[in-house]
């Protein structure tokens, strides 16, 4: 059972909006099923309609524990008193409503400090996400990322076979916030920021695809996806920067990009996290 009190934000709003925002493990369908079964109480009375709420209304929702367990499930790769590393699946944001961080926080409800992500991955990029479990660790790790003292390696399945097997690419990226996309230029332009992307070919395949190890020295939005597409090797399954005909032919729904390895290479003071120096975590 979940007990919720309506705050000012949801005054005069519908019940479904309030419930789905506050119980992210419930889908719209599962909420209406609970409503039909009268498994929702408003101020002590069972209801079966999506009614308008008032501030300070008390809502009781009788939710199956199986729904909560399934939603809260996270794939923990490593954990200690300071950090948490999770293997993120596709089709979920790192932050925001109904995000990976939402799930993490539901698993640490009793904690004084809920784990916070130290970096981001695109919604459909899979792999390792590093969380800090206290403010000291968060401050250190954010500084380490700024200082390039944490290496992030990705595996990308791309179209084509690069002629140069290992390269350090430099270009310039512009983020169009209105269109939620980025553009790449080989030369400096107003509003464009410099990006550096390194890759090495790990394997090549008979269907004219290659598996690359990719490392970025600058972490800009969609950098890997857009930069690889710019040099003629888009990531397989990428609906934004890829080739739709190739994606359909090979049959991947999401971009085949995975953050598979994180390495700590501290060369400045790392305080309580010194024990992480030289450690590598890999999936």
Helix/strand order, N-terminal first = EHHEEEHEEHEEHEEEEEHHEE
Helix content: 10-25%
Secondary structure class reads alpha+beta
Mean pLDDT: 94
Find the count of extended strands (DSSP E, 2+ residues): 15
Q: CATH homologous superfamily name of the largest domain? A: Pseudouridine synthase
Tertiary shape: globular
Please name the CATH architecture of the largest domain: 2-Layer Sandwich
Number of helices: 7
Question: How many structural domains does the protein architecture include?
Answer: 3
Specify the CATH class of the largest domain.
Answer: Alpha Beta
Q: What is the rounded Rg? A: 23 Å
Biggest beta sheet summary: 11 strands, mixed
CATH topology of the largest domain: Pseudouridine synthase
Low-confidence stretches: none
Strand content: 25-35%
Distance between the termini: 37 Å
Describe the protein in words.
The chain is an alpha+beta fold. It has three domains: 2-65, RNA-binding S4 domain (Structural Genomics Hypothetical 15.5 Kd Protein In mrcA-pckA Intergenic Region, Chain A, Roll), CATH 3.10.290.10; 74-149, 2-Layer Sandwich (Pseudouridine synthase); 152-260, Pseudouridine synthase (2-Layer Sandwich). It is built from seven helices and 15 strands. It has helices at residues 15-22, 28-36, 65-72, 100-107, 135-146, 223-230, 244-250, and strands at residues 2-5, 40-42, 45-47, 58-61, 76-79, 83-88, 116-117, 126-132, 150-159, 166-176, 181-185, 193-205, 209-216, 257-264, 280-282. Strands 5, 6, 7, 8, 9, 10, 11, 12, 13, 14 and 15 form an eleven-stranded mixed β-sheet that branches. Strands 1-4-2-3 form a four-stranded antiparallel β-sheet. It is globular and about 70 Å long. The model has no long low-confidence stretch (mean pLDDT 94).
